Amino acid sequence: MKIVVLESLGISDDEFNKLSKPLADNGHELVVYNDGKLDDETLKTRIKDAEVIVIANTVLKGEVIDAAEKLKYISVAFTGYNHIDLEKCKEKGINVSNAAGYSTNSVAEITFGLIISLLRNIVPLETIVREGGTKDGYRQIDLKGKTLGVLGTGDIGSAVADIGLAFGCKVIAYNRSEKPALISKGVEYKSLDEVLQSSDIVTLHTPLTDETKHLIDKDKLALMKPSAFLINTAVGPIVDNDALAAALRNGTIAGAGLDRVDMEPPVPADYPILDAPNVVLLPHIGFATEEAMVRRAEITFNNIVKWEKGEQENTVL
Question: Are strands 29-32 and 147-151 parallel, antiparallel or unpaired?
Fold first, then answer.
């Protein structure tokens, strides 16, 4: 069986060889591309004879999938899979799995990195102290005692809620279904509007669907407190980022911490959020710890092993 790994998995060669060894030991051919060439025509050429492909967060269009006449399975080295043309996969009978759970703790941790950066003005003050300045004119705000609103209580949102409780926050949440385990710890479920109206910090952890695209728009931002902060470590288009930039300029909310915007970096120089006040921007690093990359590769290769045995895990299709 020919297995084509289309992009770097962010791990050392030694880790790669160790984690892919069960596949090599079973006589499968592994072809690995780490050169960053991910345009459609290159992808078509590289997967033409593949029976299995591994891809992370590169867009995989239907026309590219059509070029892979032998393709039977896609192991997505990523939690999200909306960048894969799933309708084409259904049409061709191609199974798909994702790497669910590999970055749960990593994303939860960066969420609080953004929160604390905003509350303590870490980013501007780091520059100021290097220029000989002081903290004068910059607020310093405790996290303890604040109301943390968690939108989406899947694995990551639940981890964020747990950490928020540990910090001494009042945690409220919005989700389609309520989790008794979180309720037993003191988390209160409320409507979306109630969470937005009541929270000092709103943090997003929902998947991107037709229903959640621009879930946070101009009207929803207007419900938030002028002193509140918005955190997005989930998916960029959950937020109308143009509306967010306007809300920050108008003082509708106090600030935002974003690991995700509408696109993968680099972000163009004229992107509106870049000029908005009191924003901490990161280039989509929440998932990318060294430990998470190893967990991701382990899940990705194990998915292939399990699929080959007829025991598909982390099933998308």
Answer: unpaired
